[in-house]
Every structure is written in C-alpha cells, then in structure tokens.
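Annotators were shown the component list below and the corresponding predicted structure, then asked to write short factual statements about the assembly.
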Amino acid sequence: MFARLNLIFGGILGSVVLGMALLALVWTPASPVAIDPINRLSGPIPGHLFGTDEFGRDILSRIMTGAWTSLSVAFLTVAFAVICGSAIGLLTGFYRGWFDRIAMLLNDALLAFPGILLALGIVAIIGPSKYGIIIALGIAYTPKVIRIVRGTVLSLRQKEFVEASRALGNGSVFTMLRHVLPNSFAPIAVLATSLFGWVILAESALSFLGLGVPPPAATWGNMLSAARPHLSTAPWMSIIPGGFIALTLLSINLLGDALRDWLDPRM
Amino acid sequence: MIFNAPQPTLSVSDIRIGMRGSELIKGVSFDVHPGQVVALVGESGSGKTMIGRAVLRLLPDVIRPTSGDILYHGTSILSLSQRRMRALRGEKIGMVFQEPLVSLNPAMRIGRQMAEAMRLHTSLSPAEIRERSIAMLRRIQISDPEACLAAYPHQFSGGMRQRIMLASVMLLRPDLLIADEPTTALDTLSQLEVLETMMDLTRDVGTSVLLITHNLGLVAKYADYVVVLKQGEVVEAGPTRDILDNPQREYTRRLIESVPTRDPHQPQLSHDGRPSILEARNVVLSYDQGTALWARRPRKQVLRDVSLAIAPGEIVAVVGGSGSGKTTLGRAMLRLQDIDAGQILYNGQDVARRADRQLGDFRRKCQIVFQDPFSSLDPRMRVGAIVAEALRHERGLSARQRRERTEQVLSEVGLADYRRRYPHELSGGQRQRVAIARAIVSQPDVIVADEPISALDMTIQKQVLELFERLQRERGFACIFISHDLAAVQQVAQRIIVMENGTIVEEGPCDAVFENPQHEYTRRLLAASPMLARPSETRGNEKREEPVNE
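Structure shown to annotators:
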C-alpha cells in the first residue's frame, strides 16, 4: 500500500521535473542567457514568473535549462559510480584473495578523503567541463559503493544457497551473477538514490568554487551559489533552485523506495 | 514436594492473549506446583513460547492478555506494577532461552554476566558474589571455574554456554524456572547434559520448572505433568505417563508417533563387496586458524585419516556430536571443501584434486541437501526456477522437457502447485522439500543429506524423513545421512558410522550398533538420544520422585 504511494508521488514529482528538463531542450519562456538590465534582481513579474537574477536573466528559463544539466550530471555520475563500484565490489568480495586486499587498501585510502576534496583534485586535473565533473564525482563516490557492495557480497557468499549453486555444478561467474548480484540489489538501490542527492549538492558545491559546469550555462548548483550575495535582497534567487533540488531529491528517494520494494519478492 | 498443596507456585487460569483483534491464545489453564516439572508441548505456532513470556510479562507491546489471569503464589502477575514485576523477574522467576549464543552477551566476561543478577537483586559484596559464582560453576562441573569467569561466551560450546546460563539463573534460587526450548539448538549429547544439569539444580533448590518444548522425547524423561497445545488451545493435559501411554486426542497421538521408538529393524541390505560409488580414502583435512598477533596458530585438525565407502543405493548414516567432523566429511566428499591429503573416489576415479570445471558429471551426480532450508534457497528465485537450475548442466534437454521434469519432481515431493511461489512463502518443511527436489531432479547417484531435518518441528521431521525414505526407495540413490539424532538415523539407515573428534570410532550395520554399541562414545550418544520407550517399558527411575501426599 505504502509502496504504491511512494511510486505515485515520486512518479508525479519526477515526471514534472523531467518534463521540464526535456521541454527546455526545445522551448523556454525566455532565453536563459538573455540579459534584461532594467529588471535586474526583480521578484516575480509578468514575463519573469520566477523573477530575475543579478544580470536580469529569467530564472524560470534558467531553472529549466539547469534541470537538464543537473539531472544528467547526477544521473550519469550515479550510473558511473554504481556500475564501477558494484563491479569492483562484487569481484573483490566474491573472489577475495590478493586482488581484494590490494583493492581494499586503495579503497580505504580513497575513502579517507572527503568525496568533494577528491572530486576537486580530479576536476583540477581534467579541467572543468560537464563530463569532467561527471568523471570526477563518479570516481569520488565509487569507493563508497565498493564498500557497501563488497560487504553485502561477503555475507551473501557465506549463504548456503550460494554453496548449493556450486554443488549443482555451476561455475563461479554464473553463481555470482545469478545468485549473489540479484540479492545485493536492495542495498545498491538505496545507495544509488542517496548518491543522487549527494551528487546534485556536490555539483553545486563545485560550481560554487568555480570548478563546476562553466558559466554562462545554468545548473541548479551554480544558480544557488550565484544567489548567495543577494540572499537578503532577492531571496527567491536561492529559494527557487533550492526548492527544485529538494523536490527532485524527494522524488528520487520515493522512487528509490518503490524500486527497492518492487525488487524484493518478499514485499 | 507437595503435589496438591493449597497454593500452586504458578497458576495460569483461562488466559487469552490477542494481537490487534485476533486471538492467539484461546483460554489456556494449568498449574505449576512447588517442585513440579510441567511441560508445555506443541509445534511452532502453538503459542507455547507466548505463554512462557506472558508469565514474565515479556511480550511485545502489541500482543497483550485480553482476559484470564496468571497468578504467582496467589498474586496476579498481570496487575503488578513495572517495579514489582522487575523485582520478580530473575529473583523469583528465572528464564532460560533457546539460543545460548544470543542470550549471553558476547562482549561480556562470564563472571560479570553471572554477577549481574546478584548485584541487582541481592546486597552481597563483590567477593561473596565471586565466591558463589565459583561454587555454582563447580556444582555444574565446569573444570576450571576461575578461568571460566574470566572467559567470554564464544570460548564455550553451545551446551556449556547453556549450562552456564542455567547456573547464573539458578544462582538466585528462583522458585520458578521457565525454560524455553533450552536444548533445541544443541546436539544430542549436550542436550542430555544441559537437562541433567537443569534437573539437578532445580532439585537442589526445590524450584518448579515450566519446560517449553516441541520434543516429546524430553518430556517423557523429565516432566511430571504435560500440557499439549495446538494453535493456542489446550488439546490435552495430564500426568506425563497417562498422556504418553494413553493419549486421548488424535493430535497428541501424532506428536507421540513422531518421536521415533526403538523397533528392531526389518532385514537389511548389507554392503556386500559391491564396488563403491563414492569413497573417501584416508582423508585428512585441517582448517587454517589464521594468525595470532605474532605467530601462526596451529591448524585445527578436523578429519584425521577418515575412510568411508558407499555402495550404490546404500544409506549410510554419519553420526556424531557437534565438532566431530561429520559435516566436514560430507562436504569434503562432495568436493565442497578441499582436503589436505587422501583421495575422493567417484566411480573409482580420484576427483580430490580436480579443478571445479574438470569435475564433469561428478557435480551433477552427487548432490547435497543442507540443514537449514531458510538459507539454502535463493530468496529471489521462484521454487520452479530453483529446481530447474539443477538441470542446467543436463545435456540435450529442451526448455519444455526441463519444465516437465521440474514439475514432475515437485509433485513427487508433494509441492505440485508451488512452482510460482517464492521460498519465503513456504514453511520450513516445504522449503526442505524444495531442497530435496532440487537434489533429486538431476537423478543423482549420491545425495549427502547434512542434518536435513534438525531445523524442523518434530511432526514435520517425521514427514520429511518419510518422504526422503520413499524417494530413496523409488529412485535408488545412495545417501550419506549426516545427523546428530540417532533416533532419526535408525529409521532410515542401513549402516552407521559414528564419528568423534575427526575419526571414525565405530562402524557397523544399523541394528548391531544400536543393540550392541562397542565404543564408549556410541554408548553415550545412544543413552542421550530422546527416544520414547514403548508403554510396556517404563522409565520410572529417571523421573523425579513420586509426589507424596502430606
């Protein structure tokens, strides 16, 4: 019953945000980069539904184009981290041995860095661009995924059904993919949804430091950081992108719960 | 010992317990008199544990008594304040749980855990507490009590832990002890030790015992009075001997029948020099115990030069206490564990040192049924897929043939319509049937059954055992039946291997071993096995003294 509600609310919110992002690819109310100097830092007025920023750019249009950038960065980063992390976690946890030891040593070293610091270093090397950020954040969050997947796999490989698979004559690759991987979906799904939120915030932090997606392209993160000096005079500048980040996270979390329930045959 | 004294220690009168409107216990009444041992017997789900917990008011919040009363020496337990209830728990009413592994705190030394209750309920000095703990440990024959106090729970076996648990509960000399399946998690020998200890200690103090169990074999030996429960209702109650010899109700009769009795066996097939299908020859196996802080710990010897040959179609039972190496032997013979030295011969060929992918037919033709049906089935797969997976390596089988074979085997184990179910939707017995179906679908030559029924209820045990026997008769696979339960073994096996400490100490045809055990260890195992003597042979000497009227 609750699973249904998760799906419905998460789905509605998610499709609104996604629809907005897709619409921005073909149409926005105004150009997201057009400057309107007369209406700088204006509140909601006709023509600028969500007001304007410090250059007089239309916030609604920037939110819409920013949605596409933010969502695609977050999605690709999470996909990168989850795929790499799951693969490494699965292999190291399942086969153990020296490969596992070395990988875990490196992984622990990486985990000791705050993710954002690691990403910062990597962006500095690759250079700030959309794909640079995706790779940097992806690498920064992979160790967390490795840890969690490996832990799950370690406990699963002790289970008798895994041994039963071996006793049936199945090869280790088959056992790993058929029995171990599906049983670790639940923690991976939960992790992926929370990663999504972290990535949106991390991207905005990088933008804030000037290492995010370079201006004038809009992302929710760099809109938020641009709004900071005007917090007292033009609060909508931060409230609107902040609100969209919050709504997106809510929708992702609800969808994540629904996904987890759907994947679990016991529900 | 006063049997019909005016006031019982515990009196449960028409108690009803419900959860969210549904009634779980439907009016149960019984009395426990001072010094008496009363057994609550029933299968899982009968509500026996719930009643035990209700006496201590340890039920979860959503489950509460709706009517009736529980009187302890005439005062209602249900209306006591939390404070007075806490004073009662431990000091007056002690409780022992099923899992000694869980009920002792793994991070606390034994000494502190034993002292805990005394610190709470008495005003003894630490020195006195220590003295009493040591005396108590000596009483239960722990060899080095002082070292024991400084040790952690994991350093003891399950049976030892349970005895220590008992000792610490009995230190406070409660006048009622509630023992909830105190021996279910233990092997046969430890079961006996724990129960003897329990009876000893309670007799010392004159404590009454409420023994909660699914095992009627135990009851026969120790209880004075039996209450048989089914789905929250009393089916039958009365003095133990009456109930066992003359059960009035069908359900009780079924419970009694599911306890194996010693019956001389029908004539048996013997191992008459046929070539063996699977054989272990001089197998040695040890575990690496990891490194201690500096030095490498010595390897733990699990199998020391064990040889065992199984003829086609033969059922061999491997019996022994926990730690005897019986499970390891079974797994080694299936190449699920690598051996240090020796040979594993399948159809005369040594497979001990082959890599997994060179095993060929071996994996398909030698199957295993695990002990715990809750962890041996992949929770994400449907029953049909689980069974069909065993046919993956069967050559030249179309998808349709595969499905037909799966369905046929499932109906053979009595689960014809369960193909689309998930394991969590099945009961323990049904899950074990799925595991058996998975093992037989590839028409194996050998099945290793590793304690296949020990995790199940008594009545279910019987059904699964019968199913197993029938399938073996029909399909003629050879079987290594690993068990700590001699009673179950004698029902199915033709030959018995007794293992202790990694070696085979006795071997012979089933009846010979039962009638005339040669080795001391076998004799001890036999004596400890909870079997019902048939009504003619009474076991009065093992029961408590008969109550005397005053």
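Statements collected:
1. The radius of gyration of chain A is 22 Å.
2. The CA atoms of residues 40 and 56 of chain A lie 4 Å apart.
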